[in-house]
Amino acid sequence: MRNTVHLVTYVDRLGGGRITELAALLRGPLKGLFGGVHLLPFFFPIDGADAGFDPIDHTQVDERLGQWQDIRALADEVEVMADLIVNHISSRAPQFQDFLRNGSDSRYSGLFLTAETVFPEGTAAADLEVIYRPRPGAPFTTYSLDNGEQRLLWTTFTPQQIDIDVRHPEATAYLDRILSTFAENHIQSVRLDAVGYAVKRAGTSCFLLPETIAFIGQLSRRARGLGIDVLVEVHSHYSKQIEMAKDVRWVYDFALPPLVLHAFAFRTAKYLRHWIQIRPANSVTVLDTHDGIGILDVGPDRSQGHAPGLIPSEEIEQLIERIHSNSSGESRLATGASASNLDLYQINCTFYDAMGRDDLRYLLARAIQFFLPGIPQVYYVGLLAGQNDLQLLAETGIGRDINRHFYSRVELERALQKPVVRDLVRLIRLRNSHPAFGGHFRAEPGPDDSVSLRWDQGVEFAHLQIWFEEPRYRIEVSAHGAAEPFIFECAVRALDDD
């Protein structure tokens, strides 16, 4: 992955509806901002049960967005990342439909994971209690085959997303076919979506097992053999992220968003500073994504003796309430039992709203993201300092849709003129162009109410200081070796605390 800021977006939600229109944006008003773009699922269909994360066919571009030739053309201009949805397949996929028709005689019968495969003696209440669940309820759905036989199938996320047995030969062939299609069409990197749930074993949490780590390694090697880089997507206790980062190319820094929010809300960088000292350098940094703001990533690990998290549990609860307050209660409407298709460990809210729509604090949060080691990704709603979409939430009843707005081209161009967005664009250009960010990083010591992040390469340097109490900041960078450094000033100012 190129050491620049990358964009994360749906093709049809950022100023148009087709891949060619997105490419035109990246050549036009967004020119020079992003060295790569993560295209959220563009496969057939984009409007299933989970906004494209339940594809019928990974190897087919939804014709409403374009064709593979459009992906190849885009990849000739910027690095393109696609999702490899590892854990499941759509109930409407031809492989599953063949299984429903032919049962055990289907060549795909072993592709789909049944409860019996993992629990041949049947499931007891104790078995179900230890299974790690992202959402309420049992992880199974009963499907009736055409011959009248019933099968209890694993459905970790929704009944329409059928878990596959990733260790079965048909699953290997299925995933390899997708990777080969990606490579043929110039996809440079993949995100392994929901891969933490991929391997299940009786008597365990069925989440991020040693066998899962081994599977991730095997799949990553096959991808790299095709010239495809790999980013692993797992929400888990921070210690697991640190361990996993030793064995894979890239992991997400999902702990960063709540830690940054905590620093501004509590006016202390104590926990953020600690994380900066121990976090993996091979991280993809985010503040917002197509999912919610992760809380699990900074919380305790209840599966291993209640290992403490990065933030004390009582302060996590206070932080959640602060986010709800900052968003005027809008995030509460989209989180937990208030909305369907929910994730228990995430708060659904735009990051701009979670920051109380405070322009300066929002920009300083982005500055922290850009100054940390790793590859920064900016979600399209965050790029435009987007606000919660209550209308879309009301229409769909899906909590995460509050942060998945459909921007028309007019809306996009209007948003790009907002002072906060113009300052953000300047920060992105600084991160992309300044040579210091290819050098040596250090977090300088100081009081708990501040952070000091510095990059040096030869005579070039970039230095960020933030004092959270006010807040106050200083961004100082070398000016191509000149004696006098350049002071980066944001045009916007913080909102009054009142």
Structure description:
33% of the residues lie in helices and 18% in strands. An eight-stranded parallel beta barrel has the order 1-2-5-10-11-12-13-16, surrounded by four helices. The chain has helices at residues 19-27, 68-75, 94-102, 115-118, 125-130, 169-184, 210-225, 238-245, 256-266, 270-278, 313-326, 330-333, 351-354, 359-371, 380-383, 390-396, 409-415, 419-433, and strands at 6-9, 36-39, 43-44, 57-61, 79-85, 88-90, 140-144, 150-154, 161-163, 189-193, 229-232, 250-253, 283-285, 293-294, 346-347, 375-379, 440-443, 450-457, 460-467, 472-477, 486-488. Helix 9 (256-266) packs antiparallel against helix 10 and helix 14 (359-371) runs parallel beside helix 18 (419-433). With 498 residues, it is an alpha/beta fold. A hairpin with a 5-residue loop joins strand 7 and strand 8 (150-154). The radius of gyration is 23 Å and the shape is globular. The chain folds into three domains: 6-84 and 170-438, Glycosidases (TIM Barrel), CATH 3.20.20.80; 94-162, Alpha-Beta Complex (Oligo-1,6-glucosidase, domain 2); 440-488. The two termini are 43 Å apart.
